[in-house]
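Researcher: Here's the sequence for the chain we discussed earlier.
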Amino acid sequence: MGVVGSFKPPAFNLLDRFTNGFTELQQQENEAKWTMLGKMLTAAKELTTSTSVTDFFKKLEQQNKEISLAYEQIPSYFREKWAREKVHRDLQKSLEFFESVENSLEHMNIIRKMFLGNKNTEDGAK
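Model: Thanks. This is the structure I predict for it:
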């Protein structure tokens, strides 16, 4: 009993530190996302003040540099996580699109058979 009882406080302290660290990381990630969103909105606002095409492209280049610098200041583990999440989302969208195309082809075949009947199979047998 003495060994188990003496183990509980360090285990709970470790769990608390782990939980607090996870919460802190989530807060840092959210702050990074909001910072990037703010930079993008500021860039969009700045681009709307362009007075000519040349001015627009100068401002676009400047805003691109500022956003790139802000992005590079975000810790790499957040950027890598975001990249993995984007790949996952893109793959999921591709799979959903493929399934919808596959379903559409099945529906088209059903409709074709309803209107054409078995004419294609008869033509193929000749």
